[in-house]
Amino acid sequence: MNNQSNTLGWRRQRSTNIAAFIFLLPVFLLLTVFIFYPIVDSFAISTYRWNGITADRTFVGLSNWGKLVGDREFWFAFRNNIMIMVMSIIIQIPIGLAEATFIEFAGRKAAICKVLWFIPMLMSSVAIGFLFNYALAANGGMISAVSKLFGGGNIDLLGNKNTALVTVIFVIAWQFIPFYMVYCMAAYTNVSEDVYEAAVIDGATKSQYFRRIALPLLAPSLKSAAILSMVGSLKYFDLIYVMTGGGPGTATELMATYMYKNSFVQFNMGYGSAVAAGMFILITGLSLVTMRVINGKKEV
Amino acid sequence: MKKRMKKITAIGMAVLMGMSVTACGAGDGAASQDTGETTGTPADSAVETTGNETETPADSDSDSGNKVITFWNTGTEGADKEMYELAINQFHEKSQSGYTIENIPTQNDKYKEKLVIAMSSGECPDMYSTWSGGPMNEYIDSGYAQPLDDLYEKYGLKERFMEGALEQASYNGQIYAVPVKNISIAGIYYNKDLFEQYNVSVPTTVSELEAACDTFLANGIIPFTLANGPKWTGSMYFQCLATRKGGIEPFQTAAAGDGSFEDECFVYAGKKIQEWVNKGYFPEGFNSMSSDDGQANAFFYTEEAAMYLTGSWATASFKTDSEDAGNDFYSKVGWFTFPAVDGSDADTSILCGTMGDQFISFNCTGDKLDVAFEFITYLSSDETIEHMVAAGQIPPIVGVDDMITDPVSKSIIDAANKASAVQLWYDQYLNPTVANAHLDGNQEVFGLTMTPEEANQKMQAAQAEYLSGK
Predict the structure, then answer these.
(1) What ipTM score was computed for the predicted complex, to two decimals?
(2) In this complex, is the C-beta atom of B119 within 8 Å of any C-beta atom belonging to chain A?
(3) Architecture of B56-181+356-398 per CATH?
(4) Is A117 exposed, middle or buried (0-12, 13-18, 19+ CB in 10 A)?
(5) How confident is the model over B215-231, as pLDDT tens digits?
(6) What is the value of pTM for the model shown?
(7) Chain A within 8 Å of B59 (Cβ-Cβ)?
(8) Looking at B198-340, which runs of residues are DSSP E strands?
(9) CATH superfamily of this structure's domain B184-354+424-469
């Protein structure tokens, strides 16, 4: 009896394994071709001096890496990434949460808000970039027009080294707040209706319910939202590329735009790959540390 | 056990998210460039090139044996587009070769990167235009261009193009490209009406130019229109000022490694630029304006700005834009070369710019190359040249002076004929890394966030690094 059931169990296990293997194979192949191989290759290319188009490349060992570690422009770009990361988490998630909470509390009446607030998410980054380039133009842009209305002069936000990055951060926030709104709305649906009713019966006000009950229940989702935002900010590229190209000067240079410039504008594919590989290490490291810090108490 | 699993999953997740960076990070760049021709992301493109290490790019192409010649250029609109299309139509009508030309224009500021991505993924077009200089040398070094001396002889084109133009198309003593488009030199376009109205005459020295600017400023007119978002636009001021101050020598020696970009004439150029910015000679917000959007042209067209320092390709734009708008703006446009720096004995006939603007190189061999070059004969046929001249362009063809009646083009070709030397645009002439250091620094000089000395220092440092790695 025992033996037989073991065999049955074993058989079932084996067929499950085969099914799992078959289902995982396509994903694994795609990941290998498009993710794992390029990453390994990036690391490999980073040991060469190569202009990116010629067939012969010169092996230079770790000299690209040595240069990267001492490259002030790269670390300045990294600092910009960190700025975007911190500001994104501070701005985007709370506003997204506030919007989701409003929609949650207002119910059907707020359907129109749901639609309107979601619209930025539907636009492509490039379109948003152009849109805001015109809206923020020093001549005839919205901000300048408002400033003129109150007797001020033209304001050039994107052309000024000191304001360009902050301006772009706000545009990025505009683009991604809807994402976190939807994210939080989804998290709200996981909070059981019973909990809400119980709280109301116990005499909790809406703000009490939000602070004492909903927020703690949403916390895990918010944590993963923060990590998503973090990774997204560290590898950010498109809006910066369209809006400022890293300028004025190098004021809004990010790691990704720096990598791009090195690889495709300056014919420095070897060093560009070193930058890409450096980004990979930095981002993975930062994500691991952050996850550790955020989840630390529970895990240990 | 469960906790352990969770941890492993967490680590796995983090690694995955990080990974998507290297892959997607690079992929994004390509995606924003590609319009469909190149399908590989840069990351896996590297794979292809390494796989074919022994095979030169040109070989793989001619073997395919298709009868389509792909031709990449920047003629997305206006006179350029018309010119290419006209030549292609002539080719399709008259050529016996059976080949067809597939014309793929891409917008100016995106073009260079798109070309590099195409080359790195082994998708280099059969013919492509470049601005010559540093990048062209990279393409040639990498085997994406063919020497053309024999074909020039065969089709008798050597005598047809101006010598200076062929010189800029040459590399190590061989001709690798065809100068097709336009004698494009930096000069100042001005609004004759405004000059007359405020009693300003064409300046011959920088101090006269400044006096003129002050007059315009006092009357609420912007002296110079400029859109310095793409950076090379502001670079022209730097080049012109430095050349007028110190002549062609300081730059040539610095670029060759014998001199330095910290030379006095470059400091002078940067300081003058900052002085002009402080005085308000440029429109507000110029450092974030884009020239591709026509934001600089707009000030000139609406007569809010009196002068426009740019390359002489602008003549054609002014002409067609004026015609399209149905006004007589074009008749108000005049042109003069950059005025002399007071107290400098530098040769004032020297010009900054290019004798061809666009140079077509070929990435094909054998018959295909021959046919592709045959296409060039249509691009420089009398019919095409006449069309180009009528559109306000000055193709680098011997004897083009006689065909030109347009007063603006006339003054440009006169200056070009008189020039003792033409310095190719700094940002084209230099190695791309050095050029980028120059463009970034110069934009900051314009933005008053970097001193001229600092910017020049950075440029020199980039040059030193380039030379040391050579």
Answers:
(1) 0.75
(2) yes
(3) 3-Layer(aba) Sandwich (3.40)
(4) buried
(5) 999 999 999 999 998 89
(6) 0.78
(7) no
(8) 222-224, 305-311, 333-336
(9) Periplasmic binding protein-like II (3.40.190.10)
